[in-house]
Design goal:
- 14% of the residues lie in helices and 29% in strands.
- The termini are far apart.
- The chain is globular.
- It has 15 helices and 55 strands.
- By secondary structure, the protein is an alpha+beta fold.
- The strands form 14 sheets. A five-stranded mixed sheet has the order 31-52-51-50-49, with no helix packed on it.
- Helix 1 runs antiparallel to helix 2 and helix 3 runs antiparallel to helix 8.
- InterPro entries: CTLH_C (IPR006595), LisH (IPR006594), Quinoprotein_ADH-like_sf (IPR011047), Topless_fam (IPR027728), Topless_Znf (IPR048419), TPL_SMU1_LisH-like (IPR054532), TPR1-like_2nd (IPR054080), WD40/YVTN_repeat-like_dom_sf (IPR015943).
- This is CTLH domain-containing protein.
- It comes from Lithocarpus litseifolius.
């Protein structure tokens, strides 16, 4: 094949890829043998598509071409063989052995015999060379890394691994250039030719008196377009992928496409099928707005997640009859009238949620209704006037029989679910809930406590990360995205799937529907930092951009829809808040003041077309949209999490902020306080609280009322909603006493440490045990939360499992039902190797694998890896020179942190097990550690921050640099710390002391909020000196923990059901409470 013919193949490959003919692209790659698509190969290997893998490889090499090729095919077939053995499918394994692996016997007969002998083993991991074989996913990953090295070294793949550097749409450009030339040769060329075919040469019909335009002005003679766009043939050129013109905002993003081509990613002079070339060539540099747009025909006014207008003012044009528009002096929608004093900074109330807040949204019509979703799957509606929870729903699958097998299996194993996102529909008649397992629920709201099930959708495989309402084609829809890397659009009336958008290569983190110039589109962001944009069609993504810092990002428009912002945090903890220049698809300005070591992902919101706010570094931070410097920060009385959820109301006069003690704090400015006082002085009807929206609801499947304000929402990550207060003449008056600056006394702010001194003040249970009683050295719940594993000082492991029975039909760990002490039928005990150690002096530690199949354990000597089903040892590693006292893995950082008896911390890379860093603990002032004091380590949920536990202190470190962020030292009266651990949500830290007490700290601030004395869980016995040695937190119940005692006992502790949690966090100004013995277990202030 000639060089030009070869190049033509590459042009065809590019064209097919741009047109999304995926299968055809890879078939041509394989048949031509010109380009080996490594990404496609990686996907097939990762998914275990072995036949397709070998078929694709066959276009480039054969088994016996060279030693590299032989090794490639052998590794693939060996992996296929081992997977069959792992599934206990021996018939399949024998078939692979005979058909696929026997060919290698001629080259290495001994190896083939050894492979054959694996059939005789119950578990092929018993073979020493395969003992480190993990699960299927990890094994494929390891093999893939090896295959890539072999392919890159194989001379047959030389010059086939890189695609030629072509401008986008090169084949189209060449064709258009040809058409330009053909048109120039026409005897009577028309100014705007209508070219409808490529099958014959182009000629123009002879018009009466027409003259050929000069080559200089001929619109077909333009230069080759920038960034792969098309030369301006006309509105009816041969390559017009979609009949609608892109909005200037989206077309601008396409002016600088990424290196990954997309079929409609060109932004040349005509954009996509532009109806007017001249208009497109003069497109404005900033987005345009049309205040007079007829919303009934634009069918895009209700596109975003919260009730905000785009191209309209913030006001509701025609408020419903039952909406009371409260006017405040000095209140204006003009930007120029706003100052930083307009920001809501005064705490007026705190709502006790009971579990960690994950998402919030104000009602789009009723300003005093707040929708909240939590990490325990609860959804509730708060009425801020009375501070009452007027409606709530717990997670429950409505129709388990219609769910997929995968979801049913997941729920059977673990029914706990977190809310990822809550959002009201534009009219407030509905709200949507995205859960951490597959499901989206749509509820209809009829005022007061009347919540009704409307629609259940199994939307995605795994997490549903975000959802938003939109109105494509005048039909109310909900847009969802998830862990399965897909965006989907669903009809809200029927639950029918309307569109599926694929193209992201990582889980999709957020969606942001919007409209510009009568065109509706969706921005989506993924956890790998990619931003894409989609029209409601099947043409693929129009944009492929990198978010700043490759961060997990959310996007939101200002209230009037003219300015686009994004905020996100990358894996290194660096956060970015930026405004985008839509006409160029580039960052216009970056705002300063966000943390460089953020815990979690920073969430943000916008208000009044003027201000931005973000929850970061235990604060709420504000910016003026036109100034990159930080405008103001507030602590909101402290106890905020590292990255709190925040939410403005529509007018920006109220702000909801999540707290670290499972609450929601409501802040207000002067207008907000006046609003709440106005509400207080009026009568109110809770049963009709949403009457403005519910009184005459539109059909769920049709276009809503034109007087509803529409806009965007990104949940706890988005702009605020339009909100007015619905009032009715009723006899019930609001009992609301907002906290305002001039209040001298507010009883709710008088904080006191929670003391639990009696068994009647909490729930506790001692686990049954018929084995030899020796002190408990280590204790852990399994990842499922259905069992507890204890390691005793004699190196023996004990395992308790909760079973299904009449008292425990849901099979959960609880202090109300005793579990069963479990042993395998063989009677073998899991026992660590202590041959080289003194068992009395040995310090034990262990860690569980993610699927509860293996436990890595040590009792002061060698590290053992046990199979949790057979209790067999897999491998042993050498530890520290001095005894090891703690181990912690970070799956995100790929490191193991170990702690030793010499108060040292070490960071190890899990790939090559090389030491990356080490550091000695900082001792609190005036204290000295014992020569061989134990040090334990545990990672925060973010897998970035490390809890370090020492007898003298609790400390928080940044891994893997080992930088100390906070430190807390107990008062000496309680004795040394014996152990500590995070709660499952990393919001609390449970700390045990030598005097038998247990303290509960707020994790973010390291402040003591509850003290549980020994008498609360042990019967009084002065002759016995028993105290906790270890403490373990339940993996899904944040208020349940277990204690392992010096007498060998294991106790489960939970707060009373009526309380729901262990105390409340102290406000910042109160420190950690009074300076009496009630806080003997902790100092008032954490040290920085």
């Amino acid at each position: 094949m000639s060089s030009l013919s070869r190049e033509l193949v590459f042009l065809i490959l590019q064209f097919l890829d741009e047109e999304k003919f995926k299968e055809t692209v890879h078939k041509l790659e394989q048949e031509s043998g010109f380009f080996f698509n490594m990404r496609y190969f990686e996907d097939m290997v990762t998914n275990g598509e072995w036949e397709e893998v070998e078929k694709y490889l066959s276009g480039f090499t054969k088994v016996d071409d060279n030693r590299y090729s032989m090794k490639i095919f052998f590794e693939i077939r060996k992996q296929k063989y081992l997977e069959a053995l792992d599934k206990r499918d021996r018939a399949k394994a024998v078939e692979i052995l005979v058909k696929d692996l026997k060919v290698f016997a001629a080259f290495n007969e001994d190896l083939f015999k050894e492979i054959t002998q694996l059939l005789t083993l119950e578990n092929f991991r018993d073979n020493e060379q395969l003992s480190k074989y993990g699960d299927t996913k990890s094994a494929r990953g390891i093999m893939l890394a090896e295959l890539k090295k072999l392919i890159e070294a194989n001379p047959l793949f030389r010059d086939k691994l890189q695609f030629p550097p072509l401008k986008n749409s090169r084949l189209r450009t060449l064709i258009n250039q040809s058409l330009n030339w053909q048109h120039q040769l026409c005897k009577n060329p028309r100014p705007n030719p209508d070219i409808k075919t490529l099958f014959v040469d182009h000629t123009c019909a002879t018009p009466n008196g027409a003259r050929a335009p000069s080559p200089v002005t001929n619109p077909l003679m333009g230069a080759v377009p920038k960034a792969g766009g098309f030369p301006p043939l006309s509105a009816h050129g041969p390559f017009q992928p979609t009949p609608a013109a892109l909005p200037t905002s989206l077309a601008g993003w396409m002016a600088n496409p990424s290196s990954v081509p997309h079929p409609s990613a060109s932004a040349g002079p005509i954009g996509l099928a532009a109806a007017n070339n001249a208009a497109m060539s003069k497109r404005p540099r900033t987005p345009t707005n049309n205040p007079a747009m007829d919303y009934q025909t634009a069918d895009s006014e209700h596109v975003l997640k919260r009730a905000r207008p785009f191209g309209m003012s913030d006001e509701v044009n025609n408020p419903p009859v039952n909406v009371l528009s409260v006017q405040y002096t000095g209140q204006s929608h003009g930007q120029s009238s706003y100052t930083s004093s307009d920001l809501p900074k005064t705490v007026v109330m705190t709502l006790n949620q009971g579990s960690a807040v994950k998402s919030m949204d104000f009602h789009p019509v009723q300003q005093i209704l707040l929708l909240v979703g939590t990490n325990m799957g609860e959804v509730m509606v708060w009425e801020l006037g009375s501070r009452e929870r007027i409606a709530s729903k717990n997670f429950k699958v409505w129709d388990i029989g219609s769910c997929t097998v995968a979801l049913q299996a997941s729920l059977a194993n673990d029914y706990t679910v977190s809310v990822n996102r809550v959002v009201w529909s534009p009219d407030g008649n509905l709200f949507g809930v995205a859960y951490s397992k597959h499901i989206v629920h749509i509820y209809s709201y009829h005022g007061g406590d009347d919540l009704r099930n409307h629609l259940e959708i199994e939307a995605h495989a795994g997490n549903v990360n975000d959802l938003a309402f939109s109105y494509p084609n005048k039909q109310l829809c909900v847009v969802t995205c998830g862990e399965d890397r897909v965006i989907k659009v669903w009809d809200v009336a029927t639950g029918t799937k309307q569109y599926t958008f694929e193209g992201h290569e990582a889980p999709v983190y957020s969606v942001c529907p919007h409209h510009k110039e009568n065109i509706q589109f969706i921005f989506s962001t993924a956890t790998d930092g990619k931003i894409k944009a989609w029209l409601y069609d099947n043409m693929g993504s129009r944009v492929d951009y990198d978010a700043p810092g490759h961060s997990s990002t959310t996007m939101a428009y200002s209230a009037d829809g003219t300015r686009l912002f994004s905020c996100g945090t990358n894996k290194e903890g660096e956060s970015f808040l930026v405004e985008w220049n839509e006409s160029e698809g580039a960052v216009k300005r970056s705002y300063h003041g966000l943390g460089k070591r953020t815990v979690g992902i920073v969430q943000f919101d916008t208000t009044r077309n003027r201000f931005l706010a973000a929850g970061d570094d235990y604060l709420v931070k504000f910016w003026d949209m036109d100034n990159t410097q930080l405008l103001a920060t507030i602590e909101a009385e402290g106890t905020l999490p590292a990255s709190p959820c925040i939410r403005f109301n529509k007018e920006g006069i109220l702000l909801a902020v999540s707290t670290n003690d499972n609450g929601v704090r409501i802040l207000a400015n002067a207008d907000g306080i006046r609003l709440l006082r106005t509400v207080e002085n009026r009568t109110f009807d809770a049963s009709r609280v949403a009457s403005a929206a519910v009184k005459a609801p539109p059909s769920l499947g049709t276009f809503g009322s034109t007087d509803i304000t529409v806009g965007t929402s990104i949940g706890d990550r988005a702009p605020p909603v339009a909100a007015m207060v619905g009032m009715n003449n009723d006899s019930r008056s609001l009992d609301i006493k907002p906290r305002i600056a001039d209040e001298s006394v507010d009883k709710s702010r008088i904080w006191k440490l929670t003391e639990i001194n009696e068994q009647s003040q909490c729930r506790s249970l001692r686990l049954p045990d018929n084995l030899t009683a020796t002190r408990v050295s280590r204790l852990i719940y399994t990842n499922s939360g259905l069992a507890i594993l204890a390691l005793a000082s004699n190196a023996v492991h004990k395992l308790w499992k909760w079973q299904r029975n009449d008292r425990n039909s849901t099979v959960k760990a609880t202090a109300s039902v005793s579990p069963q002490l479990w042993q395998p039928s063989s009677g073998i005990l899991m026992t660590n190797d202590v041959s080289d150690t003194n068992s009395e002096d040995a310090v034990s530690c262990f860690a569980l694998s993610k699927n509860d199949s293996y436990v890595m354990s040590a009792s002061g000597g060698k590290i053992s890896l046990f199979n949790m089903m057979t209790f067999k040892v897999k491998t042993k590693l050498k530890g520290h020179q001095k005894r090891i006292t703690g181990l912690a893995f970070s799956h995100n950082l790929n490191v193991l942190v170990s702690s030793g008896a010499d108060s040292q911390l070490c960071v190890w890379n899990t790939d090559g097990w090389e030491k990356q860093a080490s550091k000695s603990l900082q001792m609190p002032g005036g204290r000295a550690a014992a020569p061989l004091a134990d040090t334990r380590v545990q990672f925060h949920l973010d897998q970035m921050h490390l809890l370090v536990v020492h007898e003298t202190q609790i400390a928080l470190y940044d891994a893997p640099k080992l930088e100390c962020l906070k430190q807390w030292a107990p008062r000496e009266i309680s004795g040394p710390i014996t152990h500590a651990t995070y709660s499952c949500d990393s919001q609390s830290i449970y700390v045990s002391f030598e005097d038998g007490s247990v303290g509960v700290l707020t994790a973010a601030t390291l402040r003591l909020r509850c003290r549980i004395n020994q008498n609360a869980y042990l019967p009084p016995n002065p002759s016995l000196r028993v105290h906790p040695l270890v403490i373990a937190a339940h993996p899904s119940e944040p208020n349940q923990f277990a204690l392992g005692l010096t007498d060998g006992g294991v106790h489960i502790l939970e707060p009373l059901e009526s309380e729901g949690k262990w105390g409340t966090s102290p406000p910042t100004e109160n420190g950690a409470g009074p300076s009496t013995a009630s806080v003997a277990a902790g100092s008032d202030q954490p040290q920085r």
